Amino acid sequence: MHEVGIMEQLLAIATEHAHKEGASCIHTIKARVGDLSGVVPEALAFAFDVTAKGTIAEAASFEIERVPAQCYCTTCQQLFQPSTWIHECPHCHEMSHDIRQGKELELISLEIS
Amino acid sequence: MCENCGCANSTGNVHLHTHNAPHLSQPRQVEVQEAILAKNDHLADHLRQKFHQQGILTLNLLSSPGSGKTSLIERTLTDLGLDFSIAVVVGDLETDNDAQRLRGKGASVVQITTGSVCHLEANMVETALAQMNLDGVQLLFIENVGNLVCPAAYDLGESARVVLLSATEGEDKPLKYPTLFKTADVVVLSKMDIAEAVGFDRELAMENVKKIAPQAEILELSARSNLRLGNASIQSRTGLESWYDYLQQRYQMISSKKTSLEAIKPTSEMIFSTLK
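YS: structure for the whole thing
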């Protein structure tokens, strides 16, 4: 369950930004989690409830924007969305390892006051 | 509700937070757009640069607990210890059993005991390396915590990632734990000396690795014997020799200094780098 460690990092970044802005309360945290990031959104949400306690984000709502996987097929020279972890091009059936989207693990924005 | 700012961070009229800064009447939006693991990744990049400058080939070894990571390093120290100066960083939740096994084989070994942390992070590696003299070191093995899930997300500054899949684990591990296998530069099928005894379907395992990790080189070996394994093109080599060939080739790339830092970045790094 490395989501707790990741959430601690996220809150550290969020808190730092809030303080920099002179805010003392975080109302909303928006994060982006890719389907290939190895992070389970539900586990991250659970980790938020535990980790945010006693911080200025304690009452914040935590929103996750999920990013589907997207690969590039070098043979067909086009993007495709794999439906499973087997990244096979639907057109030529070659395996792709060129991941263009889906690994994201980012803090997008905050709502503060 | 807080009377000053209207935030929900209070119960009744009791403040749960201090107003050390004046609130604006309306909450406002701040764009951040920052990778959550940026701190780890920056440090990993710094370590990779340092290893590259010193001509050190660094391998991050990942697998389930008990797949043979320590045995493979142990055997490598025995066979290559005279040709290479080798250092090892070992990560475990508790005990220094693995480090003790590896000491006395001519390598400098540092154990990282993570307590309850289920993976290694770049700062742990940096701390461990501070206890080690890297002068003259050519190969650095980082034996990650035995875990097929969590270590995948953490770049440690390695030149390559080696994921072990032992014959005793079953052929479908790559399908069950795709995240980690997706980041592999090499997949080592280990304990192949007992593959037949445990009913391990080699072809099926290969097929599964190729489906999930088409980028990875596949090696088959046993750290306990000089098995002749592998495909027709390397019939003359034992599994271990193929592993040593791989290490030699990768080491040459780094030590020649002609190779750019970009060229030696592991697969995982290339996937994650788009997000930095």
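YS: worth flagging: Chain A touches chain B at residues 1-2, 5-6, 9-10, 13-14, 17-18, 21-25, 27-28, 31, 36-39, 56, 58-59, 85-88, 95-97, 99-100, 103-113 (CB under 8 Å).
IM: good catch. Also Strands of chain A lie at 26-34, 61-67, 70-73, 78-80, 98-101, 105-112.
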